[in-house]
Design a protein that fits this description.
259 residues, mainly alpha, 11 helices, globular
Length: 259
């Protein structure tokens, strides 16, 4: 039953023009970067910024819009003898598979078509991290959409959450570092940044790009603790929790919600 629903959801999503436009958008962006710079390293740095800024926003908005648009279809499915968990799992998996595949195809093809030499690992790290970001913010989108019946409030919360993670959070973090600069803040800095999936993704990619020196104090901390293979595994595991926890909460709300 899960496979049938999953295939149906994927087929429905693939018919959406937004998914095709999404893949084409990334393809054009990467091709344009190659065209104007011709330097693979500069392209990868620019791709990192796109992954950290654009990907969370699109994942949030697309996920929220998808849930609200299929509310009537959900009600039809819920009237059938199908467990709610299966409906939720099929919907989330289909959305993550399609959106992540569009990102990988749109961003990966231009990279693979070029002479990447020793940049393959870095390129794969950026794409891999982008998939994690998509899955995480899609889970947050599901959590927001199922928690709010009002569409406008849902989109508003999504935009605020994106702005907080991307802009406000770093401002608060720097203020704390400055206010308590006389105290040892290595461990609190790691914990504080672990509470932001965008920062975690930035850390993983930046360490692979060997640009941690540009991050100042925090860069030195993460180079020290996360520069090793074990550190990368730990930071990736924390990023995985940013998928698992919102996913679990959203599924729980969906299962218990009165439609």
């Amino acid at each position: 039953m899960t496979k049938i629903l999953l295939i149906q959801e994927i087929n429905d999503l693939l018919k959406s023009r937004w998914i095709i436009a999404y893949a084409i958008l990334f393809f054009i962006l990467i091709e344009s970067l190659y065209w104007f710079s011709g330097d693979v390293s500069k392209v990868l740095v620019s791709l990192t910024n796109i992954v950290l800024i654009v990907l969370p926003l699109i994942s949030l908005l697309f996920g929220i819009q998808h849930i609200y648009n299929r509310s009537e279809f959900n009600e039809i499915l819920l009237s059938q003898p199908i467990p709610r968990k299966i409906i939720f799992v099929a919907s989330y998996l289909a959305t993550t598979i399609v959106l992540s595949s569009a990102f990988i195809l749109g961003s990966g093809l231009p990279i693979l078509l070029r002479e990447i030499n020793g940049e393959l690992i870095i390129s794969m790290t950026i794409l891999f991290t982008g998939v994690f970001i998509s899955c995480s913010f899609l889970a947050l989108a599901y959590l927001i959409a199922f928690s709010q019946n009002d569409k406008a409030k849902g989109f508003g919360i999504g935009l605020i959450l994106w702005a907080v993670f991307l802009i406000v959070y770093d401002g608060i973090f720097m203020l704390i570092l400055y206010s308590f600069r006389d105290y040892p803040l290595e461990i609190p800095a790691i914990v504080f940044n672990s509470l932001n999936p965008i920062n975690l993704a930035r850390i993983i990619i930046t360490l692979k790009l060997d640009l941690s020196a540009m991050m100042g104090y925090t860069g030195a901390i993460y180079k020290k603790y996360f520069g090793s293979t074990i550190g990368i595994i730990i930071s990736t595991s924390i990023l995985f929790l940013w998928i698992a926890i919102p996913y679990y909460l959203a599924r729980r709300i969906f299962v218990n919600k009165d439609f």
